[in-house]
Specification:
Blueprint lengths: L2 E2 L4 E4 L3 E7 L9 E4 L3 E6 L2 E6 L10 E5 L2 E7 L16 H58 L6 H9 L10 H42 L28 H17 L17 H13 L3 H14 L4 H13 L3 H14 L8 H17 L3 H14 L4 H15 L6
Parallel strand pairs: 1-6
Antiparallel strand pairs: 2-3, 3-8, 4-5, 5-6, 7-8
Helix pairs in contact: 5-6, 5-7, 6-7, 7-8, 7-9, 8-9, 9-10, 10-11
Keywords: Cell projection, Cytoplasm, Neurogenesis, Nucleus, Repeat, TPR repeat
GO molecular function: nuclear estrogen receptor binding
Organism: Loxodonta africana
Length: 410
């Protein structure tokens, strides 16, 4: 028996509907999404989500993005109007079954038309390729017939190629005297080239000998003898290693560390602090003042020490997340916001403001990492806590526009 998903959320404009369906462990390869102009279904065993839409949509241009245990749908309306609800009201089982069957038949018809269009386009491409090949073959046959027509009886095709490729006015030597003169000129050129090559080789040899003499003259003399001072790190125990008992020494050091940890003296930052400075609340107020003066690094150090003294105060993590967001430490912002949300339990009216700030800061960090779907989920969670917050509403609308591709990333 599939589990029906009912805790979805949706928002709309006059032209589009934004639907967010939470599914634990959902991924793109296992989720089965089926959508027509009046019906939407998501099958991800053991979860099932289906909705009979209030008005027709353009299923061809609608989009779905899967990630972070959520599917976000962007459904574009065929007619610009505000819907009274997401699904039809007063739909009985027979009408549901009829809509399902009509949607399946519509999807099959659409798939059949797409396959026929693809096959027709393939046939046109094959017909065009065949016509081009026929034209190429006809052109080759015409060239071969022209070639054979111009050839004289007993003349080879190479002679014809020579006649075609030899430029006008150029003739080969025909007499023996011309051939002999060409041979003499060739031998003279070879002799002249060999002589110039020998001169160049002698010049290079002389240059090599001269450079080698310069290298021998520039060799530095051997360095003089000197001494190097070496200082060794002193051991904890002054006894020599061959006379000491390493196991007993390690045990003693371990006991000393345990004793310092028991009296809470293993925090170096506490050694030089006054008694009032060891109070986490005092450190929190100090961090808030440093944050107000935009000294974010010092504020982070104050919150770090307060958390080491008491790691159960959620406002310390929330304030440190704000500092990390200013310093562009986005992953640390996400960690601190998540830790603050874990400590802000149970969700009551007294901690509503802190929970909203944690969602907004984590959502802002996700958006700066270009994880807009995860950021939108945190902004929607913040709007559930405070629906009248105009700033959060505007930021959420901008994130939706970025996901749809209608607004540039900033």
């Amino acid at each position: 028996m599939p589990l029906q998903v009912s805790d979805y959320s949706w928002q709309q404009t006059e032209t589009a509907v934004f639907l967010s369906v939470p599914l634990r462990g959902v991924c793109g390869r296992d989720a089965d999404v089926f959508c027509t102009d009046s019906y939407l279904k998501v099958n991800f065993p053991p979860f099932l989500f289906e909705v009979f839409l209030y008005a027709p949509i353009d299923d061809g241009s609608s989009k779905a993005k899967i990630g972070n245990d959520t599917i976000v749908f962007t459904l574009y309306k065929k007619e610009a109007a505000m819907w009274e609800s997401l699904s039809l009201s007063g739909v009985d089982k027979e009408m549901m079954q009829r809509i399902r069957e009509e949607s399946i038949l519509q999807a099959q018809e659409t798939a059949k038309e797409a396959a026929e269009a693809k096959a027709a386009a393939k046939r046109e491409d094959q017909k065009y390729a065949l016509s081009v090949m026929m034209k190429i073959r006809e052109s080759d046959a015409q060239n071969r017939s022209d070639w054979d027509h111009n050839r004289r009886p007993g003349q080879s095709r190479r002679k014809i190629a020579d006649n075609y490729t030899r430029p006008k006015g150029q003739q080969l030597p025909k007499s023996k005297d011309e051939k002999a003169g060409r041979g003499r000129k060739t031998r003279q050129n070879l002799t002249r080239n060999l002589a110039s090559r020998n001169l160049a080789t002698k010049g290079r040899n002389s240059e090599n000998i001269f450079s080698e003499k310069l290298k021998e003259a520039s060799v530095p003399p051997p360095r003089s003898v000197g001494t190097v001072q070496i200082s060794f790190t002193p051991r904890v125990f002054p006894t020599a290693l061959r006379e000491s008992q390493v196991a007993e020494e390690e045990e003693w050091l371990h006991k000393q560390a345990e004793a310092r940890r028991a009296v809470n003296t293993d925090i170096p930052e506490l050694c030089d602090l006054k008694e009032e400075e060891k109070n986490p609340e005092w450190l929190k107020d100090k961090g808030n003042k440093l944050f107000a003066t935009e000294n974010y690094l010092a504020a982070v150090n104050a919150y770090n020490l307060a958390i080491r003294l008491n790691n159960k105060i959620p406002l310390l993590y929330l304030n440190r997340a704000a500092c990390h967001l200013k310093l562009k430490n986005l992953h640390k912002t996400i960690e601190d916001s998540s830790k603050a949300l874990d400590l802000l339990t149970p969700p009551v009216a007294d901690n509503a403001n802190a929970r909203m700030k944690a969602h907004v800061r984590r959502g802002a960090a996700f958006c700066q990492l270009e994880l807009y779907v995860e950021g939108l989920l945190d902004y929607e969670a913040a709007l559930k806590i405070d629906p009248s917050n105009k700033t959060v509403q505007n930021d959420a609308e901008k994130i939706r526009n970025i996901i749809q591709g209608t607004e540039l990333k900033s």
